[in-house]
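step 4 of 6: structure.
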Amino acid sequence: MAWNLQSDRPIYTQILEQIQTRIISGCYKPGEKLPSVRELAAEANVNPNTMQKAFAELERSGLISTQRTSGRTVTEDTSMIEQLKNQMAVSQIQSFIDAMQQLGYSKEEIYNLVTKTLRGGNE
Amino acid sequence: MDYSLLEIRDLCKQYSGVANYLAVYHMNLSIPRGKIIGLLGPNGCGKTTLIKMITGLLAPSNGSVLINGMAPCAATKNIISYLPERTYLQSNMKVSEMVEYFADFYEDFSSERAYEMFNSMGIDPSARLKTLSKGTKEKVQLILVMSRNAQLYILDEPIAGVDPAARDYILKTIIQNYNPNATIILSTHLISDIENVLDEVIFMKNGSLILHDTVDGVREKTGKSIDAYFREVYVC
């Protein structure tokens, strides 16, 4: 999974979101050891201090924890990961709905269209 | 020992023969350790003049530069690794001879690190400098400067003549060699290439400092990349 950074938002926020996504999607598994700040900074081509700041925030939220000698690991609390996953799903759906309403669709029309598309039919 | 790494106070520079114009105008600046800082501004705004005063190549007309609490002198040259905007290497020397030269000259120089980087960039150490292309010469010089274990690296236009792939490699090298006790100041016009790597940016205009903030601070306040914001501030 490549790092994809946009130029108009703070780098730190984007790094934070992408590590969260990696944890939710199972790219980094519960209890797994994370690469070092330096490795990840070089991989994403970002400043190590920015990566460090994102890690500190993840630690504060409890999603990762620091072992004194063995680096950082992803939390083993799968319900916490599940909860974050739900939050991100809801916010994705919300922004989809906002965009559809901007196009002039009512809630009911959106519902019907989504159902149709999910069933694979276009008519 | 409560000095920041670099402390600039009320610094001015007036070149003789140029009346009524200060190339650097009453600048104040404090730079801590452990940062990667971009020194940005249009041509002729005073970036190189400022750099030359920090490295002790030019004497200030007014004000002071303190590195670790010391005015520029032999001791500060020991802790500053400087990449000038022009080449100063002997063109008939071999790359390997330059490495020996640097190792002789600077106590903190690591030949091993230099050879490692020459190797990964595919530069032949037995080649003479004059046989290398402009971009390769720039890479050699940058590698030599980055192979020192300095406290302050000052890079004046380090990646201008270098192709994008090598630029990425150089930036990765800077990140991997990142040392929390050292600071890197780099001046460049290639902002979008480097802004993800920077902690802070300094904008200069007509010899004055007009902005000193973190990259994310600027993005948060303006909703723009440093590159886009620069184009707005310095619109012609």
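step 5 of 6: annotate
 - Chain A has a mean pLDDT of 91.
 - The longest strand of chain A covers residues 64-67.
step 6 of 6: archive
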